Amino acid sequence: MIRIGETFQGRDNRFTPIRVVLASLVILEHVFVVAMGTGSQSLVSLQGWSPGYLAVNGFFILSGFLIAGSLERRRNLFRFVVARALRLWPALIVLALAAVLIIGPVATGLSPAAYWQSAQTWLFIPNIVFFADTSGGPAGVFTGNPAPGEFSASLWTLRYEVLAYAAAALLFFTRALWRPLTISLLWLGMSALAAYLALRHPEAPAVFIEGSRLAAAFLLGAAAYIMRDRIPLTLIPLVVVLPMAWLLGEHPAASVVWNLVLATLILWAGLAWRDQVPTGSGLPDWSYGLYIWHYPLFQLIWHWGWATSPLQLAMIGVPISTAVAALSWHFVEKPALRLSGRLFRSGAG
Fold first, then answer.
1. What is the pTM of this model?
2. Pick from 60, 91, 125, 102: which is nearest to 286 by CA?
3. DSSP string of 56-74?
4. 20 to 30 A Cα–Cα from 330, which one of 104, 174, 230, 340?
5. Are the C-beta atoms of residues 160 and 147 closer than 8 Å to each other?
6. How far apart are CA 51 and CA 46, in angstroms?
7. Domain count, the chain
8. How high is the pLDDT of residue 11?
């Protein structure tokens, strides 16, 4: 049976469209949050697990897989850090500036003087750029919306993404820890911790609840990469893990099993049948732009009264978010990635 390592060659895979699908699932969930408030429930769930929740886990599984590959290819801490910074920061800086200088002034309920003089307004830029507390937003924004005062419900995951990058680099450059057994044990331990905290201490600080949850997903992806030459590329594990996840229902342990379902589906969909089915490897990667821009745009659309129902919000907001994500990719993110490539090529020369 073919192994994952035999099919994962460079960029010839379907991970770009998969990221767009995952971002779309998060968007689907946020349509209802923006239109109906933060206590709203997604219309679709898998035994109590929402598509948005599972999609975020899927992002971290795929990120763990790809970051592990990036570390092994680069084998240079400086290049790894620069590449990650140029992937995350340029688009995020544009978003932070737009939040305060463009969106905030037209969405605030405060007077112009009160808005510009508020420390909350100006602190929101470093909060976004340096992955700090991104709850709330510039002073007085969206106070009349069903999800009042919230600029973005997506950005909070980025701090855990950066922490995962740092932890992966530490494990890799320690070398003695970058082994299949070590990473697998770390995944098992973090998965157990995430389930335990969710079951016994749901009131624990979010940094522990969400941190352990997302670390477990990231480590699963990293373990899959490290053991890529041993793991078959097949859907057969779903025969066991999918019924198990379904039977566990809303029990916190189900999240661990759903991660196995997600990892199986993502890797198979991304790598199987490359010779028979186009991979779409040349497609633009709009997923990051979709992920960071959709929520504030949805909030703005609702604030202006362009939509008054989840369906209207989706019909208006998704095309606008897609257009902004495309602009972000072609004019911000892609040039930054080209800069990264030029820096390393010139350094090699």
1. 0.95
2. 91
3. HHHHHHHHHHHHHHHHHHH
4. 104
5. no
6. 8
7. 1
8. 79
C-alpha distance across the termini of the chain, in Å = 41
Range of the domain at 71: 4-348
* Residues 6 or more apart whose Cβ sits within 8 Å of residue 173: 77
Q: Mean pLDDT per 10-residue run, the chain (349 residues)? A: 89 92 96 88 79 97 97 92 96 98 98 98 98 96 96 97 97 90 97 96 95 98 97 97 96 96 97 80 93 98 97 98 98 93 60
Pure H helices in the chain: 4-7, 15-36, 51-74, 77-98, 104-107, 112-117, 119-129, 156-174, 180-200, 206-226, 238-248, 253-271, 287-303, 310-328, 334-348
CB 280 within 8 A of CB 14: yes
Residue 285: C-alpha distances to residues 8, 10, 179 (Å):
18, 16, 31
- What is the residue-wise DSSP string for 202-217? TTS-HHHHHHHHHHHH
- The b/e string for 90-103 (b: 16+ C-beta within 10 A; e otherwise) is bbbebbbeebbeeb
CA 192 to mean position of chain CA atoms: 22
Q: In whole angstroms, what is the distance from residue 279 CA to residue 272 CA?
A: 9
